[in-house]
Design goal:
Length: 64
């Protein structure tokens, strides 16, 4: 699986620890750029998903 692939209404992601996630496109509450060049995705329930991809790349994946 390539991170950033869409499957229906879900975005398939692999976090910085290698764990896979299927996140509904509407579930992203906020994105934060990290000093390391990665991105943190804030999800409902206060869950954080740390990605190695830059903010611009994650934004492109979430755009229609």
């Amino acid at each position: 699986m390539t991170s950033g692939t869409r499957a229906g209404r879900y975005l398939l992601l692999r976090d910085a620890d290698g764990q896979r996630h299927a996140v509904a496109l509407s579930a992203a509450l906020a994105l934060c750029e990290l000093d390391s060049g990665g991105t943190v995705l804030l999800l409902p329930g206060g869950r954080l998903l740390r990605l190695d991809e830059p903010l611009e790349q994650v934004l492109a994946w979430l755009s229609p």
